[in-house]
Amino acid sequence: MSDSELERIKRQRLAEMQRVLDARKQASQPKPIPSTERILQRVFVGRAWEVYEATKQQYASIAGRLFQELAQLVETGQLTGQITGEQLYGLLRQIGLDVRLDTKIQVLDHGKLKSLGDKFRGG
Questions:
Q1: How many Cβ atoms from other residues are within 10 Å of residue 70's Cβ?
Q2: How far is CA 86 from the centre of its chain?
Q3: How much is the pLDDT for 32?
Q4: How far is CA 47 from CA 53, 89, 97, in A?
Q5: How many CA atoms does the CB half-sphere of 37 hold within 13 Å?
Q6: 119 and 111 in contact (C-beta within 8 Å)?
Q7: How many CB atoms lie within 10 A of CB 83?
Q8: Residue 97, class by beta-carbon neighbours within 10 Å (0-12 exposed, 13-18 middle, 19+ buried)?
């Protein structure tokens, strides 16, 4: 193998390593927040984001448009104040969306939060 071939292979390998490094760096950067979510950040409090995510997963076709409308109301000033998870859940129920949420019952026992099952088991 000649020196020129060896040099060409080194350059190719270096370029490949640079592409991999650039791809990893790009993947580690946070993705920009869509404008709808950025607008809703102003008003969502408490468990509203949990209800939002559950709605997106369960009613993907409807949720996008619904939350765009909600964001538009916030932008135009027609909707002011904060929206809690309970309020958002109630709104979704009123329009006929039965959003299922992951429910956990926890008990405070000697300064520690324990699941209800652990409490009954004596843990």
A1: 20
A2: 18
A3: 63
A4: 10, 10, 17
A5: 9
A6: no
A7: 20
A8: middle
Which residues of the chain fall short of a pLDDT of 70? 1, 31-34, 123
Q: What is the 3-state secondary structure (H, E, C) of the chain?
A: CCHHHHHHHHHHHHHHHHHHHHHHHHHHCCCCCCHHHHHHCCCECCCHHHHHHHHHHHCHHHHHHHHHHHHHHHHHCCCCCCECHHHHHHHHHHCCCCCCCCCCCEEEECCEEEEHHHHHHCC
Q: Structure tokens of 112?
A: 């520690």
Closest CA to 74 of 104, 48, 110, 112: 48
